[in-house]
Amino acid sequence: MKKDNIPPFFATLQAANPTPETELEYATPFELLAAVLLSAQATDVGVNKATRKLFPVANTPQAILRLGVEGLEEYIKTIGLYRSKAKHLIETCRILVEQHGGEAPRTRAELEALPGVGRKTANVVLNVAFGEATIAVDTHIFRVSNRTGLAPGKTPLEVELKLEKRVPFEFRLHAHHWLILHGRYICVARMPKCWECAVAPYCDYKPKTPRPKSA
Q1: How far apart are CA 179 and CA 141, in angstroms?
Q2: Confidence band (pLDDT; 50, 70, 90) for 215?
Q3: 3-state DSSP call for residue 58?
Q4: Among 121, 49, 126, 58, residue whose Cα is nearest residue 82
Q5: How many angstroms separate the CA atoms of 158 and 45, rounded?
Q6: What's the angle, vertex CA 82, arms to CA 100 and CA 58, rounded to 5?
Q7: Does residue 63 sit in helix, strand or coil?
Q8: DSSP 105-118
């Protein structure tokens, strides 16, 4: 993607959705941290179904610790890898209580020190809960960045660092969500919906996918 095409690319996404939000349901930074931790290799829809039952019962580190691993598993067993996630979340809650006063920390280093929390999860929490202009590269952002030519790279970190350089500052805060939603609903994996893509004029992907006869 040519440098001159990047501002109109994001301006178009912004015009369609001025204030994008995560599709994970949460009310506090800790709830978001827990939901993102549970969302690895799972859908937001699936995580929301589980947390709608969990959070009314236990939505603080202290309350989840009282559930214990087995008690927590009962609430999240519909989510993939739920056993390892339960162990990670319990241990994370223990660290939050012992070291952070039961609150989600606000720095990348402290977040990444928590069990089951990697760079992507930390970036989501920093961006969504604390309003920092971070970009968490998931499968959708990785695909969109490479397919469009916006920020091609062989690893999520390479893509993230390129996005930090190429995304204009005025679009940085919401770029994470615009790219995720675009990849989730338009620039999908198997057959991108180029025929209904508002940013197709700025995208390097060729040939554009034609509208299927049944669409």
Answers
A1: 6
A2: low
A3: coil
A4: 49
A5: 28
A6: 45
A7: helix
A8: -SSHHHHHTSTT--
Residue 24 and residue 45: Cα distance in Å, rounded?
A: 8
Task: Enumerate domains of the chain plus CATH numbers.
Answer: 3-19+138-202 (1.10.1670.10), 29-103 (1.10.340.30)
Q: Which residue has the tokens 């339960």?
A: 86
Pair 82, 56: CB distance under 8 Å: no
Give tens-digit pLDDT for 58-81: 999 999 999 999 999 999 999 999
Angle at 94 between CA 65 and CA 132, to 5 degrees: 110
- The two structure tokens encoding residue 78: 């519909």
Q: What is the crossing angle of helices 61-76 and 44-54, to 10°?
A: 120
Are 168 and 154 in contact by the 8 Å Cβ rule? The answer is: no
Residue that the structure tokens 């202009």 belong to: 133
Please state the length of the chain: 215
The residues annotated with a catalytic role in the active site are 120, 138
As a whole number, mean pLDDT of residues 13-33 equals 96
Cα separations (Å) of 148 from 7, 135, 157, 214?
Answer: 14, 17, 17, 25
Task: Report residue 166: phi and psi, to 5°.
Answer: -95, -25
Q: What is the pLDDT, as a whole number, of residue 47? A: 97
